[in-house]
Amino acid sequence: MALVQQQAIEFLFRTEDGGAVIDAPRHLLAALRQSAVSTDQPKGLVLLSGPPSVYRLGLCAAVDRALAGEPVLYLAGANVFDPFLVGRLARASRVASAQVLQQIHVSRAFTCHQMVRLVTDCLLSALRTYDARFVILAGPLDTLYDQSVPEPEAMRLFRTMTEALQDMAYQGVQVLCVSPLAPPESGGRSRFMAALRAQARRAIDVCEAEDGLWLHEEGGPEPKRWMIPRPLWNRL
Amino acid sequence: MVVWLVGEDGRRIRAIDPFVPTCYLAAPPSIREHVFRLLRRASCRISTREVERYELGAPCPISVLEVSVHAPAQFSSLTQHLIRACPDAQFFHVDVSLPQRYFYDRELFPLVHCEADLTAEGRIQSIQALESPWDTDYGFPPLTIMELSPDSPSPNPNHGGHGSFVVRMDGEERLLEGDDADVIQRLNQLLVRQDPDILLTDWGDSYLLPRLMIMADQLRMPLELNRDPHRSIGTRKPRSYFSYGRILSHAGARILSGRLHLDRHNSFALAETGLAGLIEQARIAKVDLQQMARTTTGTGITSMQLETACRDGLLIPYRKQEPEAFKSARELLQTDQGGLVFAPIVGYHEQVGELDFSSMYPSIMVRFNISPETINCPCCRDEPAARVPEIGHHTCRHRQGLVPRTLAPLLDKRVRYKRLMAAATQPAARAVLDQRQTALKWLLVVSFGYLGYKNARFGRIEAHESVTAYSRDLLLQAKEVAERQGYRMLHAIVDSLWFVKPGAVRADYNRLAQEITERTGLSIGLEGLYHWIGFLPSRVNPLMPVPNQFVGLFDHGAMKIRGIEIRRSDAPFLVKRAQAEVLRCLSQARMLAELREQIPQALEIVRIYRRYLHDGHATVEELAITKSLSKEPQAYRHQTLSMIAAQELLARGVSLQAGDTIHYIITDADAAYLPDRARAVAGLDGTWSYDVSAYDSLLLKAALVLLTPLGVTATSLNESTAGC
Predict the structure, then answer these.
(1) The pLDDT value given to residue B238
(2) Is some CB atom of chain B closer than 8 A to the CB atom of A104?
(3) Would the pLDDT of B585 be above 80?
(4) For B53, which of A192, B37, B184, B373 is 20 to 30 Å away at the CA?
(5) Which CATH architecture has domain B612-721?
(6) In chain A, where the domains are located
(7) What is the least distance, in Å, from the CA of B252 to any CA of chain A?
(8) Is B466 helix (H, G, I), strand (E, B) or coil?
(9) Domain B341-400+455-563: top CATH class
(10) What's the rounded Cα separation, in Å, for the pair B171 and B494?
């Protein structure tokens, strides 16, 4: 499918000392494919966590797959789906926005009960309906931080949701879980992130620095680190 | 259930009604067995039975276990225990407040005129309403009111400036002074002697009652705030919450038993609609008055929907679980659009008519049957008439939905109040009717937002999207009708349109409204005819229009003003007053040519105010800037003026949370030492001065926004009004 040709969106991932870490990526979308949502690795849960800007990374991943003609399911837990960003990325790839928008199927959950119902009861049938193998779960924990839901109930819902996600991973579905860090007032619920990380096949931490956005992955044979330069990120 | 009654002889009676609340649960037999085991261990009488009930929109009933709790005080703890112990069961009717359930069950409402049979022990044998909540001609109940306020110069006593207490009743005012014991003793004497039904306070929830309770506790003295000696004072902690994109703070609550505590500074309903409006909302929403005063208007509309559900025998789910159906991002872009806005044509225009759809969104919900269970129903999928314009949804043509059933009487009652207002001859009666119709307006306003609100019990995002899709279509229809008749549209925003046509008079605009009503099926009326109206430009780019920022002079002499300093809570009073005077000066003009002739006088007003500022005459009250904290004070990264003032308050031990309002003065906006830039009003002593330049700049901006479309530039305004 079409690759980004515009100079503005071309960049190399660099290590801290400036060297290229991964050979293939020559633009943001492809870079994300290599880092966060690799297609050539076993299926499973990939966690992308960090500042709220991780939502934009998640959307980039969705667009990348949609550009490749693959249907994507996008479950928005914090009402963060931005169709205009999708349109911009599509146009940058010289593909009609409508074509990409048509490939991404969205459902928004505004409460943790809706999010859990979405994952446990609706997702499998949606995967069949749209013939999709790739799911983005954006902000699944945000709804669980809602203080109006008692903590034990939130814990139970979290367990139910992660069990369903693991089942899906065993069935060959790839799930990219995009989650900002727990807010300071989340109390005991801040443990959700650690629990999610423990269940993820890959966990990539994102942090913002002056020079750009750094992605860091522990585990595997050796830790990996990539950077998205600030000028490029700001243009998204 | 404890029910307080006022007898015909004026006696206040504490009665007990043996009310038995019920909840329902759906679960497989194994879980039900577990439930039975838990219920057998309960410390109060419980009865159960198998029944069939419908969920909203379900074609068939489901079998559920009805659990009746014969001790209402234990209902909440028991149901919460069941929910925790049986996470896989589905629960219904568990989290609706018991006073509301009682009102629904007995067909009563707060402050209802009723007939009750009591035993000698005060047990209610029977009770029935003698009036309907939909009546418009009900009287004000014979309740006595005692007012209690802090005697403090501070705009918020929580931020400093502690003083004594002022009590007002029957036109008399008393200052409670002396040591703490004297104050408590005198207040107790007054409460016992006067025995008021309503304690109306200023800052009662956050400051007065907590302070009195601490004083009484430290002195080990009783505090007779409650009329009911069996109950303690109910407390709720302060909290912050989001509403319509803004963070707001709630000062917590001090709830009394046998007496109503209403805090003027902690009640949206009381502030917006007065006591008459608050009572109106409580009556039709069936939410008790102290709760209604402190809760969001959305709780009122939710309660009305819950009552409709109870009346229809529908199950009320414990948590909303139904998520949005998957749609492509392209569909999402088409459906999730909100209301339609046509940017205004910047500048002043004369002989303009404004037409407003009456309660547009709720009227759409009723007329097009928009409700969670009627959207995308299986029965009307192929009916073209059921299709929502532009988007792929449809609504049911066969069964009226819960939301329209709830809203229809509300819309009807508001129309009746408006007719009564138009016919009222006494200003006092008219004012009460206005407060009541305003109370209904707020319920109608939030009914739309609640369709899409995450915690709305009967909300659904597709229903929300359908309302806005219809509104866009109707607005376009209105525009078409008008343009076909030679009108030019100057501005439109969701449900309001501004038109101009040379030579058109009131009768022409009324005819236009009539034709739009006939075409759209939704009532639209002439809000007014303007001598002139100015759609004001962006302050950043004078060529850019800004929706809903305008000033207009109606032909009856009143002005309509939106979006400028005079309407903003964060503008200093001095700036508002100056802007009001400029507007008064402009309002002398009837035509655009005359408006331009007023410019020299307007500039003179600005010059006088600037002189006043430069001469150092401005007072704290004139300069105070009021801002709401948009996040927790600790979460601010930048040292804004509000943050500097908040930090000053925090350093003095004041407790602040997101949504709290603070008041400050700009003392030296460019000071290198940050705390010198602004001072909190509550901490001001004699050692302060204001930043003339900062306030001068605010003053000039407020004048410039009005005068730019008349050809005045920033430079010419500054030069022509300097003269200091």
Answers:
(1) 78
(2) yes
(3) yes
(4) B37
(5) Orthogonal Bundle (1.10)
(6) 42-210
(7) 15
(8) helix
(9) alpha beta
(10) 46
Compute the distance between CA of residue B218 and CA of residue B228 in angstroms, rounded to an integer. 22
Question: What CA–CA distance (Å, rounded) separates A28 from A226?
Answer: 11
First-to-final CA distance of chain B: 70
Of how many residues is chain B composed? 724
Distances in Å between the Cα of B641 and the Cα atoms of B393, B426, B664, B675 are 48, 47, 8, 9
- Which residue type is seen at B166? V
Section B520-544 average pLDDT: 94
Residues A139-181 pLDDT 10s: 999 889 887 788 888 998 999 999 999 888 888 888 999 999 8
Residue B683 has a pLDDT of 77
Question: Cβ distance B101 to B20 under 8 Å?
Answer: no
Does A26 touch chain B if contact means CB atoms closer than 8 Å? Answer: no
Q: Which helix (H) or strand (E) holds B470?
A: helix B461-484
As a residue count, chain A comes to 236
- For residue B299, give how far its alpha carbon lies from the nearest alpha carbon of chain A (Å): 15
Write out chain B residues lying below 8 Å of A98, CB-based. Answer: 330
The DSSP-derived string for A169-214 is HHTT-EEEEEEEPPPGGGGGGGHHHHHHHHH-SEEEEEEEETTEEE
**Which of B236, B328, B460, B657 to mutate: most A Cβ within 10 Å?**
B328
Q: Which amino acid is at A216?
A: H
Q: Are A236 and A88 in contact (CB under 8 A)?
A: yes
Q: Per-domain residue ranges for chain B?
A: 2-129, 145-285, 341-400+455-563, 612-721
- Chain B residues within 8 angstroms (CB to CB) of chain A: 83-84, 87, 319-330, 332-333, 453-455, 461
Q: How far is CA B360 from CA B339, B418, B525, B591, in A?
A: 11, 16, 11, 32
CB atoms within 10 A of CB B351: 18
- The beta-carbon neighbor of B324 closest among A103, A107, A156 is A107
**A57 band by pLDDT with thresholds 50, 70 and 90:** confident
Contact B327 A86 (CB under 8 A): no
Tell me if residue A74 falls in helix, strand or coil: strand
Whether chain B has a CB inside 8 Å of the CB on A114: the answer is: yes
Q: Just give the CATH number of A42-210.
A: 3.40.50.300
CATH class (in words) of the domain with range B2-129: alpha beta
* Contact residues on chain A for B325, CB-CB shorter than 8 A: 107
Of the pLDDT bands very low, low, confident and very high (cuts 50, 70, 90), residue A8 is: very low
Q: Which of A46, A26, A28 is nearest to A37 (CA)?
A: A46
Using alpha carbons, list the distances in angstroms from residue B204 to A20, B201, B263, B292, B420. Answer: 64, 5, 5, 16, 35
Q: Where are the alpha helices (DSSP H) in B233-288?
A: 268-285
Q: Are the beta carbons of B246 and B183 closer than 8 angstroms?
A: no
DSSP state of B267: -
- Rounded to two decimals, the pTM is 0.88
Q: How sure is the predictor about B262, in pLDDT bands with cuts at 50, 70 and 90?
A: very high
How many interchain CB pairs under 8 A, A with B?
A: 74
Q: Which residue shows structure tokens 């009861």? A: A121
Side chain identity at residue B56, one-letter code: L
For B122, residues 6+ apart whose C-beta sits below 8 A from its C-beta are: B13, B14, B15, B16
Cβ-in-10-Å burial (0-12, 13-18, 19+) of A208 comes to middle
Q: What's the pLDDT score for residue B613?
A: 96
pLDDT in tens, B122-180: 999 999 999 999 999 998 888 999 999 998 777 788 887 667 899 999 889 999 988 99
| pLDDT score at A18 | 52
Distance CA B696, CA B717 (A): 12
Q: Out of A32-36, A220-224, B216-220, B560-564, pick the least confident.
A: A32-36
